[in-house]
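hiii, so i know i said id send this last week but things got crazy w the move. better late than never?? heres the sequnce for the chain we talked about at the cafe, plus the structure i predicted for it. fair warning i was half asleep when i ran it
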Amino acid sequence: MLKNTFCHVPGIGIRNERRLWERGILSWDAYLARNAQAHGKTANPACLAHVERSVVQLAERNPGFFGRSLPPGECWRLFAEFRSSTAYLDIETNGAAGVKGYITAITVYDGAVIHTYVKGRNLHRFKEDIKRYNLVVTYNGRCFDVPFIEKNLGIRMPQAHIDLRYILKDLGFTGGLKGCEKQFGIDRKELNGVDGYFAVLLWYDFKKNGNEKALETLLAYNVQDVVNLEPLMVASYNMKLKGTPFHASHRLTPPQSPELPFKADTETIRRILRANRRFYPEACEQTPA
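okay and structure toks below
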């Protein structure tokens, strides 16, 4: 889709992009060829230069150029061309604000391998590992995950960023990540009802009681947050394509679910639910004593 995009070119925008498509100019190559046939007399020189630069930047695998140029809400167009260097990402924290807040776990999924990072174990490796990727996909990561990582770990994340929260909202899907998952038929099974605050409780159960099953459950939850981003991204991409001439030709196949490295411990979940029933009354009613 990126090679068919013109809305990132200054002076063109969404409306004129559609006019180009209607005139049969469906790609950068077509735009450049049309200009060459007219001996450079048809295209605005600045627009022509930006399209030529786009060809170079894509060849050099630089999604940041497009991420900075695309209008808000159009970064989804980056996905197909940079899918092979994409990191789906989510963090968990200790729930505290300000200087007392810290990252407890990070999961990164690249469409093939799941990587988990835990405070006090291997969290330091994230700083180097994330450099492998040119694009990150998150849910609400623009406001939360990425700024928190940059501040807490003292690093910059210069990758181009697709935040599914805004893309899904534009498509009519709201209710947070879990709410969107349900609308797409994604079932978390034993992790249904577990939320971000529960992840904080799991961390403190692990830290205070040495409960490794609590940590494994926390990681199972964090991994679910991340691996579910891929089918949501693909579905969103395909839905966005419906507003273009490329719906049939560019449609992506839904991904296969990966094998998950961690399993939630249902007894740990039940115990923490019972201890915190005032926060989870409905879940406690559904959970056997």
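btw Strands lie at 86-93, 103-109, 114-118, 135-138, 160-163. thought thatd interest u
miss u guys!!
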